[in-house]
Structures are given as structure tokens and as C-alpha cells.
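Sample intake sheet
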Amino acid sequence: MTGIISLEFDDPITQVAVVWFPAGVAVAAFLISQRSGWPLLFAVLLTTRIYLDFHWRHDWASTLVHSCLALSAAICIAWLVRRFSRRNDYLHAIVLWIIATVVVCGVEAALTGTWLSFTRDVPLQRLLWVTWIANITGVIFATIAIMSLLHDDLNACRSGWLARLTGATAFVLMCLSTWFIFGVNSHWLKPDVTDSAGSAMNFALACIPIIFCVVVSVTWAGRGATLALLTLATLVIHNTDNGQGPFFLKGLNPDEPLLLAQCYLCATALLIVFLRVLSKSARRYDLDTGRAAGEGVMYRLHPESGAIYWDDNLREVLGIEAPVLSTFNDIIDRVHPKDREKLRRHWSIQQRRQGGASLTFRITAQGSDTRVICDNTPGLMADSTGEVIVGNWQISHYK
């Protein structure tokens, strides 16, 4: 879908798309998939890319060169991020991803531009500039939109009707302000764009949708951020492609307003990402386990009978009532299959007699929401029924 949309902005002479979101889709696909599946994923994406280019009547040589270079760049970016990013350091991973994107896309643009300059009568400098910016903006915007959707932090979403109403109001205001600023020629409010004062006014007005977009992402978390970004991109690119909006300045080449629009969208997406990272960093949590600050929920587990008793905070942690998790087997059924065995060992009497320990594991909460729990068990205690394991559950910051 993103390939079909992007190819609508394809230059028939250079066969270079000014808007190229499939670059970000490919990077996101490699980031979320296992490395063992990369060859198959590469083949699928390559086949799709070749089919789309052939449908748009691109020659086979250019199609193969473009496709192989683009997907090789996506693999390089994903490999660099997964190889050199530090565990649980989100800011480091994002900065590394941005640097890798700029450098790798620059190399890809140089190779693609050199190929096209030999095969077509087009200046290398123009090809290099357009290809580089289109790839960078496509990778940054599309990757952020997809990763925000797939790695939505549901716990960060503000609950309550007031937060939901605030998000809905901000979303409507974002749509209206974007439509007005980019789609309506109101000379009584917006001076002529050829005027220096008019240009400044238009750029100042363009910041208004960004504010509303950020509010939506804060109140509606990752899925809201994806919805807001995609809606904003649709309105901005559609109107800019129709010759409207604040990015039409004197002296610009025909393709440059669209490039400016994509830079505008990327700046918005990056702002949202950095705000989410800062909000996560502001929360207090243990660096080893990711355990968030707070009381959590206390429990008493009777190993012989398998019965478990909770205090009144279980609903705050998992969003479910205590009777749903009244036995050891009830908990195991909700724990991620890869974490079940280590939880069994963690709660075994032999392990608990050795002293306290902490464990992080994944469990299905309300609906299909999977959360990471940090279990802190000081050891064994005894009551009238025998030995009892007493512990505490808290939401983990890590995923």
C-alpha cells in the first residue's frame, strides 16, 4: 500500500519517487523480525518492489538496482541498530537509528544517483539530493508510525473519560487546523506566501497541528500517535501535492515543497518519540529489572495446594479481579510460554529456601494486553497450613 501511494509521486524521467515510505516499512519489518527470517523477508519485499516498479513501467535494470540497494540499506540500518544499541537504553537506540539512517541512506543515494546519472541525462547533484532526503524522511516517518503501533505502551495511555475527551478534541483540532493551514487560501488571515512576512506567518501557523498531534500522542499513547501521524501526513502531503500550503516559496524546484513537507512530518514524528522517551525516563524504576516505583500487589502462595491469595491491588496491576488468578495453574495459563518454566523454578520450594530473588516475566492481563511483571520474593514463611511463599508483583518498565 505504501509503495502504491509513493509511486504516485514518481518522476517519470529519473524514476525516483520524491515520497518513499516503503523504506521505513522495510526497516520496521527487519527490526521486528528475527534474523533467521531476514532472507525470506528480503525475497518477499524484493518481489513486491519489482512488481510495483514493473507495473509503473520502469525498466528492468533500474528496477533491480533500485530494489536491491533500497532493501540492502534497510537491512544495514536494522542490523546496526540491533547490533550496537544498548539493552533497555531507548534514547541510545533512537539516536543510533537516526545516525545509521542518515549515513546508510547517504551511501544508497550516492550509489543510486551514480547509476541513474550514467543511464539517464540527469545531473548527479539533483538525483543525490532528492534520493537522500526522500529515503531519510521515508525511513524516519514510516518506522516511527509502525513501531508506535506495534509497541504501544498501553500502561502509558491516560485512562479516564477526561483524557479520552482531551485526545479526541485534540485530534479534531489537529485535522481542522491542518486543513485550514494547508488547504485553505485565506488571504485575510494568511498574507501572500511570496511576501517575507507571509512566509513567516505560514511557517508559524504550521506549528499549530504539531501541538495537537503531540497532545493526541500523550493522551492516546502509541496507537493514538500512529493515527495522528498518518492523518497529519495524509492532509499535508495531499494539499502540498496540489500546490497548497506553507511550503511553496519563491525559488524552490518543483519537487522541493514535497521534500519540505516530509521534513515537517519527520520533525513531528521525532518530537513525539523523544517526548515518549523522556516521559519513560522520568519514571522511577530499577535498572536491572525495570520494576516501576509503587506498592504493586502482594500475594501469598501455598505451594502444596497451589492456592494464591492477593491483596486489593491486583486490578490496578493487571486489570483483572483476584478470583481469576486464584491458583498457581491460573497464573501459569496466562504466562508467556517461554517464561513458564522459569516461573515454576522461581516459585519452587527448593529455590525459595535459598533466599530472596527477583524475576521478570510476561503475562496476559485484561483482554490480549501482555505486560511484563517483576516478581520480588524474599523467601519462605510458615503459617498454620505449612510453608508459604510471600512476594510482590509490580509492573516492569521493560518489554
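Comment: The chain has 14 helices and five strands. Residues 297-395 form a domain with the Beta-Lactamase fold (CATH 3.30.450.20).
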